[in-house]
Design goal:
alpha+beta; three-stranded mixed beta sheet; globular; 6 strands; Arc Repressor Mutant, subunit A; 33% helix; three-stranded antiparallel beta sheet
């Protein structure tokens, strides 16, 4: 994927930091916290990374996950349409190691809300112990 072109197509000027942050999230194997991204991009300032993340989220290139760890996690959106719920999949939070895993093959159960309600986001987190931590115990 040409990251710079992808950013341009979504109305974002591809600065070096925006490109780095998006590339870091694209290459990550799991949702990343601001701290995780800081640890990867050691020469970048926290506020600069945060501004890039905020912009990527506002343009629906990245979505956030509240997994209960106290740190917001970020993940690249799989869908290219901000009106789509394709990125609304469950996440698993390991209470032992603190990692969050995407369960892309699973679907969040459909909830029928009254007509007057409008859904803007869905957060579905399952908590427990991951297979790696289970095998170490």
């Amino acid at each position: 994927m040409d990251i710079e072109q992808h950013l341009i197509e979504r109305g974002i000027k591809p600065t070096a930091m925006r490109t780095l942050v998006f590339r870091t999230l694209s290459q990550a194997r799991s949702p990343q916290s601001l701290r995780d991204i800081e640890d990867t991009l050691i020469t970048a300032e926290r506020s600069t990374i945060f501004r890039a993340l905020t912009l990527l989220v506002s343009h629906h290139l990245v979505h956030t996950i509240e997994d209960g760890s106290g740190a917001l996690k970020y993940e690249v959106c799989m869908s290219h349409d901000h009106n789509s719920f394709d990125d609304h999949h469950p996440h698993f939070y390991c209470e032992h190691c603190g990692r969050t895993f995407c369960l892309h093959d699973e679907r969040i159960p459909r909830i029928n809300l009254p007509d007057s309600y409008q859904v803007h986001s869905i957060n579905f987190v399952i908590k427990g112990i991951c297979p790696d931590c289970t095998s170490k115990a």
